[in-house]
Design a protein that fits this description.
The chain has 15 helices and 8 strands. It is of the alpha/beta class. It folds into 2 domains: 11-179, 3-Layer(aba) Sandwich (Rossmann fold); 186-251 and 260-378, Dehydroquinate synthase-like - alpha domain (Dehydroquinate synthase-like, alpha domain, Up-down Bundle). The strands form 2 sheets. It has a 6-stranded parallel sheet with strand order 1-8-5-4-2-3, with helices on both faces. A two-stranded antiparallel sheet has the order 6-7. Helix 4 (74-86) packs across helix 5 (98-113) and helix 10 (265-277) packs across helix 11 (281-296).
């Protein structure tokens, strides 16, 4: 095992009606609140009203920024930060999925350091402080509710980037599985693909960490077991609970201890696809992971075969990949670009984008030939 430091300062509130603690929690940080959310789904499903009720209970002064899209834009973060600075906010409350919470994290840094948000994403500026962020999760997928990472895209520079800082852990996160009841079937499935991909990025990381391997295997098994159940019965509290907790543990550090780092090459591929075509993040991952495994099947056969044996009871690399593809198909996640209406005529565009941005893994480095091959395997 590699040396490691285990650190996770987020206080997680999980279960029915935990939102009832939101008001008293906000009170710890101040009255001036910047409320950030998406394009209106929380108003339709009643979550917005529950949050506002809590804010009113503590007589909070609320400034709202809404309209965060599913592949979040640095432009929105810049505008939210300006609004936050203008109103001298004390705390940010982010109500939504990964895109909203990621946007809130970078907004908090931008306000506190009075810095352009893209300067953090490009690692040109190191933040030294932040505004507290409180997350109210409405989609089980990214794990951002309990980690220090965020992703944004910038159409001016042609990039989608991730940034990691210990300052970006939410101070508190509220996870009520009932808040995910209204998530559509396809986005529930994409969230499951996302949490599996997070687990696999750690599994194919640098370092021999057998217990962390077992955490990965257990999280993926949990997700695969409950996936068909939650898709059939989306308002079943137990099923939603299991998926929600699996998504959180897939990227809260549990699967990484004892490794130097994960690989994250597949996420790099997915980010390029979602940047080009505004594709749902989880859908890009269910397409990219089988292609990545096929590229590496002769390079790391023992590692891939071991994964298949633990997850599916298989013994070969090809069987492992086939079973993973079958699982993604079973929950109606795409495994080919053609399934999301991206045809072979886009091949050169995708290859050029991936070569231009030099998509890569931290462990398994990719050549331009590899990038071309992966695109061919995804088509």
């Amino acid at each position: 095992m590699e040396n490691f430091t285990a650190y996770n300062p987020t206080k997680l509130h999980f279960g029915k009606n935990v939102i009832d603690k939101l008001g008293e929690t906000i009170n710890e940080y101040g009255k001036r609140v910047l409320l950030i959310y998406g394009k209106g789904s929380i108003q339709k499903n009643g979550i917005y009203d529950k949050v506002i009720q809590q804010l009113n209970l503590v007589q909070a002064e609320v400034t709202e920024y809404y309209g965060i899209k599913s592949n979040p834009l640095v432009d929105d973060v810049s505008r939210a930060a300006q609004l936050g600075k203008l109103n001298h906010i004390d705390v940010i409350v982010a109500v939504g999925g990964g895109s909203v919470i990621d946007s809130a994290k970078i907004t908090a840094l931008s306000i506190a350091n009075n810095t352009d948000p893209w300067a953090f994403m490009t690692y040109k500026v190191k933040p030294i402080k932040t505004v507290p962020v409180i997350a109210v999760l409405t989609l089980a997928a990214t794990g951002t509710e309990m980690n220090g990472a965020a992703v944004l895209q910038n159409h001016k520079t042609g990039e989608k980037r991730g940034f990691v800082s210990t300052l970006m852990y939410p101070q508190h996160s509220f996870l009520d599985p009932e808040f995910t009841f209204s998530v559509p079937k396809n986005y529930t499935a994409y969230g499951i693909a996302d949490l599996i991909a997070h687990s696999l990025e750690a599994y194919f990381g640098e370092g021999d960490a057998t217990l962390s391997d077992r955490f990965v295997e257990a999280i993926i098994k949990e997700a695969m077991e409950v996936a068909p159940l939650v898709l059939e019965k989306p308002t079943n509290y137990d099923y939603r609970s299991r998926i929600m907790w699996a998504a959180t543990t897939a990227l809260n550090g549990l699967t990484s201890h004892g490794r130097k780092y994960g690989d994250w090459g597949v996420h790099d591929i997915g980010h390029n696809l979602s940047f080009l075509y505004d594709t749902a993040h989880g859908a890009t991952l269910s397409i990219a992971y089988p292609a990545w495994l096929k590229l590496h099947k002769d390079r790391i056969p023992e590692r891939i075969a071991k994964l298949g044996n633990q997850l599916f009871g298989t013994n070969t690399v090809d069987e492992t990949i086939t079973h993973l593809e079958k699982f993604f198909k079973s929950i109606e996640c795409p495994i080919k670009l053609s399934e999301i209406n991206i045809g072979k005529e886009k091949k050169n565009e995708i290859i050029n984008q991936m070569i231009q941005t030099q998509i890569n893994g931290l462990v398994y480095k990719l050549t331009d030939e590899d990038r071309t091959k992966i695109v061919e395997l995804m088509l």
